[in-house]
């Protein structure tokens, strides 16, 4: 089985590690490089996985997943490139995978051995519970086979879509920041539920399960339309949430009364502005190849 090195054992690194083990990969096929010693010991104890320095972890791995903060990427690439330069023979081709927000494939390509395949991934925080969604963007030298193998790695922690790298700032604004938007929506719904007489714990339970159940209905309808995970657009996909909303809105009923107030309060415009602001911020934070 291909060996996977995870560089950075923070929340994303641990989510990948536990998701891969859950999906049937063996701990002996994985290695983690984590510079914070206490954290490295915790991962080694909890997952019975080997830990090593960045250079040693990367050396024999087919997939090298860089999951450190964007500001630590340069150092990690330096260690990997030094190890590659020291190695007398390059036995097998390595695929470099980066989840670091804003760091481009061109940046990796410029700092790794010439022609290195790189795949950039934008996951989101629910990957820590196996319910995330990750957008994959291949660099110049990644092959379709490598893309599908990396897709299988991220499939262990949620859904996967493939997009051109130019769309990753937009992805960040939708699914990367999305959990924050939904938490705010739930928070508002809970406060509103308390205001109309529900105990907070009951309102929280109702709101959270309603969000999860609505998402499940929507995903099932997308699945039925045969479009799940394709990164495709089309009339059925576009209208699916609107169709579901129509289905749950009886004429003159309670949902219609509530929705009218959400529209009056400018929910759509606020969401549109939020996504544009998040995309602009993502562009500002980006690290390019220069
Ligand atoms: N969290 C999310 O929801 C999310 C979503 C999308 C993308 N991302 C991206 O995923 C990446 C990881 O995020 P995270 O939340 O997992 O970050 P994190 O919790 O800070 O984890 C990174 C870990 O890597 C370690 N590290 C840093 N430099 C290292 C080096 N040279 N050698 C070995 N270990 C090193 C850090 O150690 P120290 O503690 O000593 O620094 C830290 O434990 C980030 O680039 C972020 O942009 C995160």
UniProtKB/TrEMBL annotation:
Keywords, alphabetical: Amino-acid biosynthesis, Cytoplasm, NADP, Oxidoreductase, Proline biosynthesis
Localization of this protein: Cytoplasm
Matching SUPFAM superfamilies: 6-phosphogluconate dehydrogenase C-terminal domain-like (SSF48179), NAD(P)-binding Rossmann-fold domains (SSF51735)
This enzyme's EC code(s): 1.5.1.2
Domain Pyrroline-5-carboxylate reductase dimerisation: 165-285
One term under GO cellular component: cytoplasm
PANTHER family found in the cross-reference section: PYRROLINE-5-CARBOXYLATE REDUCTASE, PYRROLINE-5-CARBOXYLATE REDUCTASE 3
Protein name: Pyrroline-5-carboxylate reductase
Source species of the chain: Mycolicibacterium madagascariense
Lineage of the species this protein comes from: Bacteria, Bacillati, Actinomycetota, Actinomycetes, Mycobacteriales
Underlying gene: proC
